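Practice problem 4.
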């Protein structure tokens, strides 16, 4: 697209060529000079010999290549090709993801569509949360362990849907409730047996869940329960008060009947969905205001591989970052400096080969721009409120899964201040440095774990499709965010550090 917001037309020259190639990084697209600046698209994006393929390992030059925009003639890479492409080799695979679709070669894959019967979207209020029940019948997965390997969103009224979350249910829905509304934001009553989170859709998150080839979400057989249905918690956003619109959205679930090597789960490096203003809120007229969660990983049964990361906020979100601390060393897991609500794609990270250990520490920051707001913005569930989510997919997952327990602090940032290392500059003085810097990590002393965000950015977006698409554009209820209010208030700490006042509170995040 022609701006970082995306969604605007006409496409830039690279976007046009990318679309003609079926939104795939091909040799023809690589060799083409879309913007006519004298450099091929491959030379601009770091693949001058056009040998990189879907989900491949990074090329040796990726880490040092000066990336330029293949759709803007004024953007020219300073990196020149200095060696011949004669004998250039295609890199090996970097991930275990299937090349096409959700299933590995030879797997018996099954796909089921489930839709809500029809819901008339309210026009009186802008924000509406409704939870629906859908039935799932997989008799072959009662005595046998199956693995869910992907979920796609089937979005009907896209212009009215803000996001929706999907939870698996271990009991069958009564026939008269299938496809119907069963609640709002509560998980009590009929929803008490729907507490296994399996996916979230927001604009750009398609598919909402995709497993690596070695893992999946197990159900049935030895797991001790099977999936009998799903709950879909829909967040409708109707700012214009549109009337008479009936939504029939749903999900498409992919699963396999043969075993996979690992179970798959999520850990919340940040899950700030509801917070009292005394804990965190966003003041008006702030160009860069951060809310940061520092948490320590627990609950892993063995070292885990991180396979993806996803950030979520609302209208004010501009930047997101998750860092990992281990024994006092820091490395950026992922950083998004031009985040937009309309493009919340999932970043695959399996290629980083990063192992996660109990005792490791995440520092996750969400940065907001409230310059157009005249009032304080709350951390809450309405469209005009804000959230701060950083969700990581990992394997192997077992038992109750990994948790992340820690503290929140917040405050303004300077216009050009680097978000990296925000903890060392802005955290309250009463934070316990030993635990928060990962000195209790159970990782082996010789564990190689440092990586480079710039390198991952080149290999991370799926199959070149994500990387090229980014260049072409240039750009339910699990309220685990807060412990008991009295305890939080008693444990809060604050002080003036850097640019502004910060407050701290114990919070807990995690996901089954």
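Answer key:
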């Amino acid at each position: 697209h022609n701006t970082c917001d995306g969604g605007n037309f006409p496409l830039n020259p690279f976007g046009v060529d990318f679309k003609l190639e079926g939104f795939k990084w091909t040799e023809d697209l690589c060799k083409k000079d879309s913007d006519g600046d004298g450099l091929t698209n491959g030379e601009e994006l770091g693949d001058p010999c056009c040998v990189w393929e879907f989900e491949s390992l990074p090329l040796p030059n990726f880490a040092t290549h000066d990336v330029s925009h293949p759709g803007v003639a004024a953007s020219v890479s300073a990196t020149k090709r200095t060696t011949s492409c004669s004998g250039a080799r295609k890199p090996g695979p970097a991930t275990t993801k299937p090349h096409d679709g959700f299933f590995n070669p030879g797997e018996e894959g099954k796909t089921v569509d489930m839709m809500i019967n029809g819901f008339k979207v309210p026009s009186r209020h802008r924000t509406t949360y409704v939870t629906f029940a859908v039935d799932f019948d997989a008799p072959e997965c009662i005595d046998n362990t199956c693995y869910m390997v992907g979920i796609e969103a089937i979005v009907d009224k896209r212009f009215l849907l803000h996001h929706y979350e999907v939870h698996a249910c271990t009991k069958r829905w009564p026939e008269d409730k299938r496809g119907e509304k069963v609640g709002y934001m509560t998980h009590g009553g009929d929803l008490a047996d729907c507490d296994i989170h399996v996916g979230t859709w927001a604009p750009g998150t398609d598919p909402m869940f995709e497993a690596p080839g070695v893992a999946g979400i197990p159900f049935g057989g030895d797991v001790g329960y099977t999936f009998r249905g799903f709950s879909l918690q829909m967040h409708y956003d109707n700012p214009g008060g549109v009337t008479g619109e009936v939504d029939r959205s749903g999900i498409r679930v992919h699963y396999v009947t043969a075993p996979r090597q690992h179970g798959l789960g999520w850990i919340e490096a940040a899950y700030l969905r509801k917070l009292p203003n005394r804990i965190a809120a966003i003041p008006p007229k702030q160009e860069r205001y951060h809310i940061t969660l520092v948490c320590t990983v627990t609950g892993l049964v063995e070292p885990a591989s991180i396979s993806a990361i996803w950030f979520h906020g609302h209208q004010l979100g501009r930047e997101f970052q998750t860092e990992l601390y281990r024994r006092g060393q820091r490395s950026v897991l992922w950083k998004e400096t031009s985040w937009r609500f309309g493009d919340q794609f999932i970043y695959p990270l399996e290629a980083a080969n990063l192992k996660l250990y109990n005792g490791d520490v995440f520092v996750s920051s969400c940065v907001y721009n409230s310059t157009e707001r005249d009032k304080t913005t709350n951390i809450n569930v309405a469209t005009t409120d804000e959230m701060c989510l950083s969700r990581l997919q990992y394997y192997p997952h077992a038992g109750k899964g990994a948790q992340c327990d820690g503290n929140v602090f917040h405050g303004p940032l300077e216009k050009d201040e680097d978000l990296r290392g925000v903890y060392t500059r802005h955290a309250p003085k009463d934070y316990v440095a030993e635990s928060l810097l990962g000195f209790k990590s159970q990782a082996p002393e010789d564990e190689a774990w440092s990586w480079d965000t710039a390198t991952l950015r080149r290999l991370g977006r799926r199959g070149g499709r994500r990387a090229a698409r980014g260049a072409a554009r240039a750009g339910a209820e699990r309220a685990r965010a807060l412990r008991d209010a009295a305890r939080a208030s008693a444990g809060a700490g604050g002080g003036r550090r850097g640019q502004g006042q910060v407050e701290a509170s114990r919070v807990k995040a995690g996901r089954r």
